[in-house]
Amino acid sequence: MLSLDNVSKSYVGASGPVRALDTVSLELGPGRFVGIQGPSGCGKSTLLLIAGGLMRPDSGEVRIADTDVYALPPDERATFRGETIGFVFQQFHLVPYLSVLDNVLAASLAIRSVDREKVRERAKRLIDRFGLSGRMHHVPGTLSTGERQRTALARALLNEPRFLLADEPTGNLDRENTALVLDALAEFAETGGTVLLVTHDEQAAERAESVLTMQHGHINVAVPG
Ligand SMILES: Nc1ncnc2c1ncn2[C@@H]1O[C@H](COP(=O)(O)OP(=O)(O)OP(=O)(O)O)[C@@H](O)[C@H]1O
Ligand SMILES: [Mg+2]
Questions:
Q1: Residues within a 6 A CB radius of ligand 1
Q2: What does pTM read for this prediction?
Q3: Which domain holds residue 171?
Q4: CA-based Rg of the chain, rounded to a whole angstrom?
Q5: What is the CATH number of the domain that holds 195?
Q6: Is residue 105 part of a domain?
Q7: Are 60 and 71 in contact (CB under 8 A)?
């Protein structure tokens, strides 16, 4: 279960505080595949970062798999995130001097016990699944945007997380690669994972089982998928 309880967050902007999230509550159980839509600036990425244990809210509680994430000390929270949550950043955040393979493998550095050989095989399988075999030893700067995006998704899936939070993971992909990525997200949910997908893409929203709409830091309506 992933739950947000009355979560609020303001940023300090040049012209005063910006209320990016306003008392948002949300509960997602295993096997759910939920999309989030809404205009630019409505707080989608903020919601995802907070839900993923990456940014502490000003108030409210975030519980992931029965753990109050922001109550954990920072190093324990990092390990917890590494083992439990896969995150695809809107700007990918790949390491520029590492190859595709090493970027994907970097996810395993955050977890406690790793069978190096097994994790390497899994990384290669994911790279292959997302059509990147021919790019495995390339660094991000030499990849297309869509290839970087798929690398970020492979990295997010490496540790077999229970939760996958993805910020516009199909934003730069053609129809075929979008379908490839959406198939992977749907399969992840079918096997008991929880997917929270921020997207502007209709093709992506259609695959989600339901879509939440955000506006001005609020979740508006839940449209059953
Ligand atoms: N680090 C920051 N400092 C100040 N203001 C910020 C910061 N990050 C986001 N904001 C503001 O908070 C609001 C919500 O931003 P957020 O990135 O969550 O929106 P979004 O819905 O993801 O938008 P987009 O669809 O363009 O990615 C916006 O008004 C944005 O300008
Ligand atoms: Mg965003």
A1: 11, 13, 18, 20, 38, 40-46, 90
A2: 0.94
A3: 30-57+72-224
A4: 17
A5: 3.40.50.300
A6: yes
A7: no
